[in-house]
């Protein structure tokens, strides 16, 4: 099982709405994530909009590719794009660049 950590930056003035939207993630989006191998998917945020995300999956690239085939993901990514800084033309899920794991306590 791969443990994936990533960082993104939400516009500070949009953080409250971003949190509210994630309190009500669409059921079909939650189902698509589960079906494509996203487990223990968690997002943490600082008040300045800095996000740290974490998930566990058998194969991150396969999980991400699986989501790319889901129509609900296309809608979700389009809906969420306005919240982020510095995506440089990428969708939010494409900008999730895994961090190097340094330590894990079993």
SSE layout:
Layout lengths: L1 E8 L5 H8 L4 H9 L3 E7 L4 E8 L2 H9 L2 H10 L26
Antiparallel strand pairs: 1-3, 2-3
Low-confidence stretches: none
**Which CATH architecture would you pick?**
2-Layer Sandwich
Largest beta sheet: strand ordering: 1-3-2
> Largest sheet, described in full?
3 strands, antiparallel
The oligomerization state is: single chain
Total tally of structural domains: 1
Computed structural class: alpha+beta
Order of helices and strands: EHHEEHH
Taking all Cα atoms into account, the compactness measure Rg is: 14 Å
Spatial gap, N to C terminus: 13 Å
Q: What's the CATH topology name?
A: Alpha-Beta Plaits
CATH class: Alpha Beta
Shape: globular
Q: What would you say this structure looks like, in words?
A:
With 106 residues, the protein is α+β, with helices and mostly antiparallel strands. It has one domain: Alpha-Beta Plaits, CATH 3.30.70. It has four helices and three strands; from the N terminus they run βααββαα. The protein has helices at residues 15-22, 27-35, 60-68, 71-80, and strands at 2-9, 39-45, 50-57. Strands 1-3-2 form a three-stranded antiparallel sheet, with no helix packed on it. Strand 2 (39-45) and strand 3 (50-57) form a beta hairpin. The chain starts with a strand and ends in a 26-residue tail after the last helix. The relative contact order is 0.24. The mean pLDDT is 94.
